[in-house]
Amino acid sequence: MERRKFINTAIFGAILPFSESVAESTPAKENGLAEPGRNIPIAGDYDVIVCGAGPAGIAAAIEAGRNGAKTLLIEVHGCLGGVWTAGNLTWILDNQNKSGLINEIKRDLAKLAGAGTVDSGSSYSFDAEVMKVILEAYCVESNVDVRLHTRVVSTAVKNGRLTHVLTESKSGREAWASKIFVDCSGDGDLAMQAGCKYEYGGPEGEGQPLSLLALVTGVNYDEIKPFVRDADDSKLRSPSKKRLEAEIIRSGVKPSYSLPGLYPIRKDLFMMMANHEYGYVGFDAKQISIATIRARAEVHQIVNGLRSLGGHWQHLRIVSTAEQIGVRESRRIHGLYTVTANDIIEGVRHKDAVCRVTFGVDVHSVKKDDENKKVYNRGVKAIPYDIPIRALIAKDVKALMMAGRCISGDFIAHSSYRVTGNAVVMGEAAGRVAAIAAVSGRLPQEVDWAEVKWTL
Amino acid sequence: MMVLSLITSVLFMCFQMPDNRRHHESCVLVKHTFADPDDSLEIINLVECQSPNGLTNWFSSDIKKSVCTSKQCKMLNVRLFWDGVGNYHHLELIDNEPLTKTDHTEFNADDYDKLNSILSDSLSVFRDLQMEDLVIEKRSDVDGVSGATSKSLTDYVVRDAVYTCYTLWHTVYGTSKNNIHALLKQRVDKDYLRKLFDRNDPVTDIWALNTMISNPEYAAPFFDKLIVKIASGNDITSSLALRAISPRNLNSEALQKKLANQISKADDLKKLDIIWKLNDCPVVYDAVIMQLLHDYQKGIITPAALQYVYKMISGKNMLNPDIAKKLQEFRTDKNRYIRDITDKLLITTEAKNQRQPRRTD
Ligand SMILES: Cc1cc2nc3c(=O)[nH]c(=O)nc-3n(C[C@H](O)[C@H](O)[C@H](O)COP(=O)(O)OP(=O)(O)OC[C@H]3O[C@@H](n4cnc5c(N)ncnc54)[C@H](O)[C@@H]3O)c2cc1C
Predict the structure, then answer these.
(1) With an 8 Å Cβ cutoff, are A104 and B304 in contact?
(2) How much distance in Å is there from the Cα of B232 to the middle of ligand 1?
(3) What is the count of residue pairs from A and B with beta carbons less than 8 Å apart?
(4) pTM higher than 0.90 for the full model?
(5) Whole-complex ipTM
(6) Least confident of A5-9, A50-54, A383-387
(7) Which residues line ligand 1 (CB under 6 A)?
(8) What are the extents of the domains in chain B?
């Protein structure tokens, strides 16, 4: 035990305070730097531009493309999929009884041996590498232009209407014109840059913790089943997580998340979620840098610790830690409708429903102290409820829609609808409406819902 | 084999049904006797209420078992009922003898409700639990398995009666259910399945459809019925009906058209499933392709679905003048995506056709 502790501390102990201090010591600039005015080349002119290629963004872009819109998908990472791929979140919640792209994805994952092979109950697990290539194939098939390694950094708004986004990449600063834009950045970057108002966090402004997800291998499901969050375990409210925590503690490491989980993909491949970074805001580059470095060190500590226990853990290895730390919540952009806790309690139905959410409220404690004090559903008993298209249409800027994590909702509602099964459906609906609006020269709010021919 | 020592005897005609039964016709009570796989000295009796048409209305079995080894606990003494296809239905107390807990208190009404809901759940947590997972502490006066309920299980079991729940659940879904299924399996043939479908009972349908999925040879004669069920609006039966249709059975234009006709009645989820089923057919007939192309034009299927229709079009289909004409129309569709995928389809099939040696007359 002592030796284990020593190895972990020797390697990682120093990193945590070091990273914190580097970031903290950066002086705040009193005076800004005036950038000379310059002419930005218009790199392209589109019907629909989607910012962010996570579960919501890929669905939005593919559906816009399939509905005849000349579409561009802009993504800052080097792959499509967002949290599914760059984030290592290989676990789709609220994916059942939903029509559309989610079923195409599941079918193709299964065909290419990319579907999880351990029973995970109603959650759908998959191999992130196969997911990447499938999503790229869909974009090619639906004529979506994809721009990877490119970040949306600014916008041009004329008479209250969004007309361009500006991006930064290896190609420098570029401008892109479009008739309609869809913000699928998770963080609401595009909407914020365009001047939309937004909400963040709970009543006291605190957000949920970040978590860095890792893929691990070198262990055998049959041997570590008691520690795995599989279908059987989920029926018992996942006692595996407390067992895993005890096992990690036995190895001399106290995980920052008291409900660490091993989520099975295949018998020898698991997603691990074992840390919570409290108090960091997901849209602040300095803060997510600190959180990422701390989290990565902790994830390695945990895996090293478990491995040092020997037995069925002796060959445990990290395949990869996520490139993108998992950000549970960010900006919730004001829309024409705001989904609320009350909607969940009442199981609200809408004529313009794009998605029926069945996943309950799941607030990860906003402070470490709350972990053992506050329940994850915050006392809200969820009845399946609808998200209307209006929650996906920006209120403050015209020609802008949102899908996924950053739609218009309150703190509690967001913690329920944010999961990726819903993000895909929202993305698809936004993509279709955006395409109809763009091709017919209207704004999204001017498109009659009957024309969208949407079925839940 | 489960039914090795099956003895069947007709008991008597019965006109009185237990409460709450679904099929209230009169029936003959037939007693089947099986060897108990856990104890070769024991036998298990299963009573079947068989209606005049040969279908089963219900099954029942009396369970008399000890739930602990200390001899201080009362015996379990209940009658379990299953419906005619082996789904748990309800339980009755024999001689009004109540069920009791480890501390000998009697079950109250809530406990019976809870037990009933546990026994109604075929996927209950008990499915994969071992006895040793059930309790956290052993007591000296009663058998270990009758001790305090493990905390993670408390919401799922009748508190302090976990072994009773466990034993009954495994009776309902273990030995007895296997015996019932073995009995029914022996009876399955075309006529039997037809009678089951004629009941127009979704529960019976599920059993019949699952039987067809695992024995595809039974499905072919029921094609018409399966097709109707696809658009029935009942999500479970509709999915099972579609699964029961093997693409190999879709071997005529008429059958494929019947299936394709369901698309306009189905929801979006099923529409794609039907198209994927047709996709898996070795050959898709020209008339079916034409119908699907029309479905796109009428807005019945989405552009995404049309893309899968294109995947089933062969070079031979393209030689059909109507299909060729329709595809030419789609080259100028108002949707740019459709124009593009149509162009791609035409170019690739043309290239394929050119690669094939031309026949000279
Ligand atoms: C730790 C954690 C665990 C979770 N567990 C589950 C789970 O088990 N199952 C589940 O279904 N959901 C889970 N969720 C919720 C779910 O993952 C998110 O809500 C989901 O990411 C929403 O999808 P999205 O497409 O809106 O956002 P994201 O997946 O975050 O995608 C946003 C994309 O936009 C890109 N982007 C951001 N800003 C810019 C910019 N300025 N320019 C260009 N590109 C940009 C990002 O790189 C990213 O690819 C979890 C979330 C976290 C953080």
Answers:
(1) yes
(2) 37
(3) 58
(4) no
(5) 0.85
(6) A5-9
(7) A 51-57, 74-77, 82-83, 86, 89, 91-93, 151-152, 184-187, 189, 211, 213, 273, 326-328, 404-405, 418-421, 423
(8) 2-178
